[in-house]
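note to self: the first set is below, dont mix up w the second
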Amino acid sequence: MTEYKFYGWETADIKDPHGLTPRDYYDLLSEIWCAETCAPRMRSDWSPENKTLGQCSITAFLMQDLYGGKVYGVPLGDGNFHCFNVVGGCTFDLTSEQFGDVVLNYDNCPEQFREVHFAKEEKRGRYESLKARLLARADALV
């Protein structure tokens, strides 16, 4: 079994209607996360070695589209939140490795809502771009 580095990978066994797990989507996303899909305020720090940087909210809401559940946010102390998914009893964060060895606290985090996040047209555009690229890759698999 491949060892992943994202939070919750060991128990991310839920499947979408195509039978794909969050680990499968992590593999696909790893090929398409890029500076264009990174949050603008973080783009200068984005690199292929830190491909999950600035991708959290658009990725979490995309996973919510596929699996349902809720998106929550770890408060970062600067007024921003780091988004992750909870689906039933499965908690996973496909973009957690951007924090390196820092361990985030996923307990008692506030729910995040796409209406708030996508009020920024720029973020909605990044989400739509990532979604189109991901679905094209996923359709090729199934």
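second set (the one i keep forgetting abt)
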Amino acid sequence: MKTAQNTKEESFGKFDFVKNIGLFGGISLALVIISLVYLAIKGINYGIDFKGGTEIQVKFADTVEIDNLRKSAENLHIGEIGIQSFGESNEFIIRFQGKTGNTDKETNEILNQSIAKVKGMIDGEFAAHKPDIRRVDTVGPQVGAELKKNGFLSVFYCLLVILIYISLRFDYKYSPGAVICLAHDAIITLGIFVLVGKEVNVPILAAIMTLIGFSLNDTIVVFDRIRETEDHYKNKPMSFVINKAINDMLGRTIITSGTVFTSSLCLYLFAGGTVSDIAFALCVGIFFGTYSSIYVAAPFIIIFEKLKYLAKA
């Protein structure tokens, strides 16, 4: 006769995650495809770190209308120019690529002249607002292209090393789910980031790398719990094992991810500039990273076993 304790042990928990594996798997696949198609059509809005150009940050003592600043900048005729305000309405970032010359020396001369024109416009037309030019950053087109190539290669090598690590840490049936989970998080985060019109630069790429590490940690915790549960319930099907393991560590996942998400959300709401963009990427990535650890990485073990069974049949 079964006791209450035995009945409790055999129950995998409150939520049946495996039951909806098809639904959430379809949602994840659709989100990844939509993100890839959107990135291919729309293209990534690279910052000056990757496409080259100049970025000037200026703060005025009082409020300045962004339309007036934009109109004055466009009258300089130095090429395509973009202006973004952040924080209060008295601090701006002015970005432009400038024109290219026939030689590198000529390009540098044109760039220096363009920077001088922008500074002259700020100090002249807006002198009454007491401008403070806080920084001027310039990246050449060749350097930007090299940074972009190395940045995305670093993400690829990171995923490759993770694949090897998971294979050694666990076994072959866990590795594909972990890597697919991380690629899923990075692609969807990048797609949403581009959708809202934000620029992708070196700090944002660093944020995506951080998300890969955060998601990997969460996935490893899930996998460890699955392996422990599998050893304890050797006669139970894998669906039972995965459900029980996820339910057992669900509280830990919610607390950990919720804490980091809340901190990142505060930075996004109250910080400005690049910090706000990094925090936005973290918020999106943490949400999808937590989701994928439960609904992508773990259930993928069942899919892999089914595929292996069909291959043998």
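remember for set 2: The chain has two domains: 17-45+144-312, 53-139.
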